[in-house]
Amino acid sequence: MTVKLDFEECLKDSPRFRAAIEDVQTDVSELETRLDKLVKQCQAMLDAGRAYCQTSKSFFNGLRELGHQCSRDTMMEECLGTFSTKLSVILEAQGEMIETTQKSVKTKLQNFVKEDVRRFTEVRKKFERSSEALEGALARNAQAPRGKQHEVEEASNALLNARRGFRCEALDYVLQINVIEAKKKTDIVMAMLLLMEAQAQFFQQSHESLSELDEYRQKLNAEHTQFVLDSAREKRDMEQRHAAVKKKDVSYDDSIMDFNADSTNGIAMEGYLYKRASNAFKTWSRRWFSIQKNQLVYQKKFKEQPTVVVEDLRLCTVKTSSENERRFCFEVVSPSKCCLLQADSERQQQGWISAVQNSIASAFQERREDTQSPRQRCSSMSQSIMRAGGSGGCVDQENNDCKALEDIQAIPGNRQCCDCGEPSPDWASINLGITLCIVCSGIHRSLGVHFSKVRSLTLDSWEPELIKLMCELGNNVINRIYEARIDEITIKKPNPASPRGDKESWIRSKYVEKKFIHKLPETGRNPQLSRSNNRATSLMQKPPLKPKPSRSLLPRITGLSTSDTNQKNSSDFNKDEEEEDLSGLHPGALLYRSAALQNFPLMADALAHGADVNWVNLSEDSSTPMIQAVLVNALAACEFLLQNGANVNQADSNGRGPLHHATILGHTGLVCLFLKRGADYNARDKSQKDPLTIAVENANADIVTL
Fold this sequence. Notes:
With 706 residues, the protein is an alpha+beta fold. The protein has 5 domains: 7-212, Substrate Binding Domain Of Dnak, Chain:A, Domain 2; 214-246; 267-379, Pleckstrin-homology domain (PH domain)/Phosphotyrosine-binding domain (PTB) (PH-domain like, Roll); 394-512, Annexin V, domain 1 (Orthogonal Bundle), CATH 1.10.220; 536-704, Ankyrin repeat-containing domain (Serine Threonine Protein Phosphatase 5, Tetratricopeptide repeat). Helix content is 57%, strand content 7%. It has helices at 7-12, 15-69, 74-143, 149-211, 214-247, 346-369, 374-388, 394-409, 438-447, 464-472, 475-482, 500-512, 554-558, 562-567, 575-579, 587-597, 600-608, 625-631, 635-643, 658-665, 668-676, 691-697, 701-704; strands at 267-276, 284-292, 295-299, 307-310, 317-320, 329-333, 338-342, 427-429, 434-436, 454-456. The strands form 2 sheets. It has a 7-stranded antiparallel β-sheet with strand order 4-3-2-1-7-6-5, with helices on one face. A 3-stranded antiparallel β-sheet has the order 9-8-10. The protein is elongated and about 150 Å long. The chain starts with 6 loop residues before the first helix and ends with a helix.
């Protein structure tokens, strides 16, 4: 250890010693400042490294997911999977290097500053106090009068003690100076050695990992080169075919696929035909028809399940149709219905008629060659006739109803009555989205349909939109709203054994008087959105609505976290909607925004706080919560609003109601829902267009044929 200050010089307390001490103090102070700065820089480097590792991890995961998406391309899948795996290994090594740097550099330097430098500072302060005490003792000893022996002895003794204490502190100080000088060198050098060792180990591991891919990279590079050459050749061929096709006369293409009963894919005939709808409009729609498995089916999109027109071709006949004004029409007549179809040409018409007739003949030939017993053939034929006649749906309906019951009761909290806790409830309130026991359902029914609409889970039929709505809410969600203040009240919640009177009192307090929901603050502010109740002249005279509870209160009401409240269904909406602070909205505006976000807990919360289900936003073309739900194709949200009294015909400032918007956007399911709920399909907007006109202009055959 190099000696910075000598102990002998310390005992002399010479000016040289004092100057050396000042130099050391200056060095240590500057060292402390630089080390503090270095520790902060090291921490910033570590934080940036961890952030880099985290974002790199997300990037590598994205590469791996892209490889899974390219599973049909072996080369792409293998390339992305192999490289993302190796990069992840290197990233793990980098993370280990960052943690080693944390321990070896930052922690060591931080401990040096906090412990060694602090100890040096404490010893220095003791030395300075003992030095001041010695100077004071020397002054008092020099000032002691010769004639006063008592004062002289006291001054001499004080000087002796002060000198002894000074020497002790000075020796300690010099020792601490020499120790910190030595420790500075050892600790900093060791930290640097550990840092470089971690760096060297990281780069060595990375090099070894990448070296393992040398052979694969060379192979992939060769495949890529060949792929580029093949692609260039294919591109040249396609350009030549493209030029040839452009020269070809395609003004009249009467091609048709020939009938093939022995086709490998089971499709004997396929092609486009026009089909006349059986509704009142008698509209025509173009569909892809095919004859397969002794059935005539059609579909609009490839991934859709084909719709069966004729269940068994042996039970039908086919003939041309001359009664219709349209050309090239023919009829497929079965025991239950008649389907009118139109081909593009006379040749195609005759081709389809022949194909159906040949398919019928082939089916009967197969039946004659079948070894099935006469009893089995009769049974099978009866089932086909029943299915063709539409009388086989009872079993399916029962299965659907059982499935609905299971789906609804599987929602958290739905296996007990929402109000008394009775297990296995078999009743529900469809506008609240809760399950009830038979006693509580009777009480709910007595409240009136404007408070609760009761339906049996086992005895009534359930539409798909109602099932989806029930699955979006549930007892837990509704109780977090209507029983939010249950801990603050003295009324005891009834149990299954409670008298009916207690249950009725509780249910009326909960849903009619709404005693247990969180109350809105009394200090109101102007709502963020305008509101109208079809009385625009009195709008400005209305006092501002009370604001919604604060952001800290809102998650407790809905049972969601703040991030969940603002980000639910984020993939369906733009960033502005996701980041909007919904907690500042009054009930009507909250219902308006949450309908667009398809956030059912917030919608239920807004209705519980008195939101107008037909609330109008004057700042956005007098749009309503229903129209907002239509814009995002939210079938369940529309059903929820309708169950709670929404007007299905309320139009915006352009005269367009929910049915208009659903038709414009091509949301067939919503159009069916609104027509079923009595929407006026003759209503015209400011452009004097009704929904049917819009559907025809958009060439939306599905909506036109409803």
